[in-house]
Amino acid sequence: MDPLLDSFQIRHLSLRNRIVSTAHAPSYQQDGHPKDRYSLYHEEKAKGGVGLTIIGGSTNIAPDSPSVFGQLYAGDDSIVPWFQKLTSGVKSHGAAIMCQITHMGRRTAWDDGHWLPVAGPSPTRERAHRAFPKAMEIEDIERVVQDFALAAKRCQDGGFDGIELLSHSHLLGQFLSPLVNHRQDEYGGSLENRLRLTMQVIQSVRDAVGPEMILGMRITGDELVAGGLDADECVEIAQQIAGTGEIDFLNVLAGAPYDDLGLAGWVSPMGLPSAPHLSIAGRIRAAVDLPILHAGGVADIATARHAITQGHVDLIGMTRAQMADPYLVAKLEAGVEDQIRPCVGLGYCVDRVNQGKPAVCGHNAATGREATMPHVITKAENQRRVVVVGGGPAGLEAARISAERGHSVTLYEASDRLGGQVNLAAKGTTRRQIWGVADWLISEVARLGVKIHMNSYIEAENVMAAEPDVVILATGGVARLPEIENQNLLISSWEVLGGEKRVSGEVLLFDEVGDHAALVCADVMARAGHSVRLVSPDRMVAHDLGPTNSAVVLRDLAFHGVKHQCFSDFVSVSNDKNRKRVVLRDVLTDVQTEIVVDHVVTECGTEAIEDLYYDLKSGSYNCGQLDHKAMIAGNDPFRKRNPDGQYYLARIGDAVASRNIHAALFDALRVCKGL
Known about the structure:
Elements (H helix, E strand, L loop, with lengths): L7 E3 L2 E3 L3 E3 L14 H12 L4 E9 L19 H12 L4 E7 L16 E2 L13 E2 L2 H20 L4 E5 L4 H6 L14 H4 L1 H14 L4 E7 L10 H13 L5 E5 L6 H7 L11 H10 L4 E3 L6 H9 L5 E3 L1 H6 L3 H6 L14 H7 L30 E5 L3 H12 L3 E5 L9 H4 L9 H13 L3 E3 L6 H6 L4 E4 L3 E3 L11 E2 H5 L8 E6 L4 H12 L3 E5 L11 H13 L3 E3 L2 E9 L2 E8 L5 E6 L1 E5 L2 E3 L2 H7 L10 H6 L14 E4 L9 H12 L3
Helix pairs in contact: 1-2, 3-6, 7-9, 8-20, 14-16, 14-23, 19-20
């Protein structure tokens, strides 16, 4: 037996395995309630075999704790029927379910929700959420203690197996941390005083829900920052919490997510170590007689298995791993571990939430779209001949899904390598894990028997000779250059990353896009010893990236001496002896400046490769068009417009317009899932 698949008992609650989806806020709520999108998302993981799912990451209990990144709100009774529907659905598939509740304290915004003052132990600002909190009065503390109890009772009425109280970095944890708590009364100073609120909340909640309800707490194992909670004090806190006899398990995290880098260390994207805090969880496990859960960047089965077998934890959180593949447990049980779609740390899920958008998995386009998009591809009634042109992520995903449907699939790739732009994206050091996306897709199309032709730059007649029923064009794009004179003096980021052009000395890198591509190029050039100036017309570099990815990448670039210059547009480039003279324009003042460098590299997105599409369009049933309403609803997007057509035609990914890897994969899924 795989130790991850061993059952586990938390008092009277039996879990079918050791794998947990820990509490998080995917921002699928509607009006603060877990309606259909929210429920279906968690039900899918229950179908996939998870032992326990803890929903409601940062579920708020009071109106002065506003939901600034799409959390649930359990501060009134209107949520109870939605809780009941959710818990019933998850339990019907054999998983246990709990809800996390919290007061966020200063870790929220004052200019949202009801515009009430943000509360905290002291008026100490948190940089990540930017609010200056009100120092709580005794009456505020008494109210919050009661609010925890009322919210816990709503969770109990909602049918949950248990409740997780969130301390780490939120109000309870803020009272504990000497970095934040500067009070001089009975709630500040000594550890006994700083623990007072936590103890009052535990007792109030237990009184509200009675002795049978499972009650856990997410706590800090070490804040890992000067002036914060250290490991020894965290062990003592854990021991005192366990000593109450009211808590049934502890969920141990580490770090201080009070700024962007702190958040990244807590929910790590690429460029940070995998599962760095297991030993911290293990230290607390050795010190208390309670089951220990850990949620902290465990993305792969091998690391999760190590965490259990080496005694670091009793239960292991694999939350983002199950966003990448909610059937992770089922595949493990079936002995097909190699077919698990891996979480590679794109960080797209976390960063979108922190940008005020619903979470999606950069690698799995069905996640969060369970109402219309399938995770499990079923066989089609009739087999078709499908031709896919292009072996990047869009083409590989189209080929994979079509083959899963049982069709005869042939893929043509013009180059000698599959993976498309991922080959370039993986050149950098910080983001090299991105190759895992292409690696999994390549292994899957091989397993499914897709016929692959490399070094095949095909024309319309070649496609027609294959007598296809469906043609999917994933031909991608080519690097776009700024629309200026002397383009021959410019080098695209693609040419640098692909090794077609070499640079040296001082390099100006102009980034029109504000996404990862220019940063990967800067990473490669800076690590090669070049002096890089990253120039952007935006108000900040990496404009489109969320806080965790941008913080880690920009930190690494700073270590390698990359300089930033914002609000600067590209005007012209000319030769200056053996160097390049660049004219930049300040987008705010219109003032122009000149800079002389050795090379000018640009990242301006892509131009679609579309000649083959237009050559094939007139011969298609659907004139190359996809029904947008049908795509949105998850239905067949092909409509017969041309009765004389010979095949259905679609183009996807960057062959349509310059976007990102998730858009490419989503295009492929909704075009091919119903073929």
